[in-house]
Amino acid sequence: MDRLMGEGRVKVKTYRERQQRWLVNQRFARVILTTMAMLTGDEISCYVAWGMHFANTSTSQWKSRAGKEIATWLSMPSIVLGLHFESELGDYFEECYAWHNRTGPLYTRSGFRMMEVHDLVFEMEYPWWNEAVAEPKKRMPKTIKYLEDNFEGEEYEKKLKQIKLGIKAGRDELLKITKRYLMKAPLVLLVLCNRRRGPAFLRAVLSILHEYPVEGVQLFNESEGDWGQYIYPDKTERPDDEKIWYDLLTKDTETTDDLIHFWRQFCLNWDILTDDLQRLSREEDPMGGDIMAPICKAKNIT
Hints:
Elements (H helix, E strand, L loop, with lengths): L1 H4 L18 H13 L9 H12 L3 H13 L3 H24 L16 H18 L1 H4 L1 H10 L2 H29 L16 H14 L28 H10 L3 H13 L8 H9 L20
């Protein structure tokens, strides 16, 4: 590479693709694209020139073949398009990684901030994937621009469809994972820590506890204090932001039983918590604006 680009200008490293494909491969793709943008004096991408140099001058058969393959692959628009897609997907993973490396209102040290994990899901992950599915160009502008500049006709439509299917598959996988773990008891009870969605979630839970009493057990002190509205004789009057949680937590007997079990297991029915729960249940618009969780706009979550 020094012979082609000048000493020390471009340093070649070997990267090993990792099967889990979480952030590492996306960073490698970004490095490759950055280096590919560096041109020789003949306006040829340094990687392509480097590969052709090996193909034409190496006395080793396998090195010559490897050089030819590198030059061929990195001259193929479909390969470069894939690198752009991988690189911009890394922006999402970088944000997730950075979030775990920061402190939060409930944590003074960085790490896996479990009590705040729904903040990450609702405020970053769901909106990112929902917007990427709806308008790929907003989240992957370089990928779509490269697609528009290098493909046309049926090939363009085919590649665009592949990109959209890939993004949708990523969004569906996120929904599957979060639905399986974060949207079931006990972890779903951590939504109580979310100041934006906690009030509506609590009112939905109180409604369930009211409708599914446990004989001889006080699930919460309904008779004392001032609770927010959670009883709806006409179920059509239940607000949408409460309905999404109510439907999610009553979709089957096991889900409802788990909710009640862990409500008691975490001692949320103790009288000492009544005042705090009542204040939370009375909140109507804790942060202003639209308090509908992005989960409400995601498909197939309930």
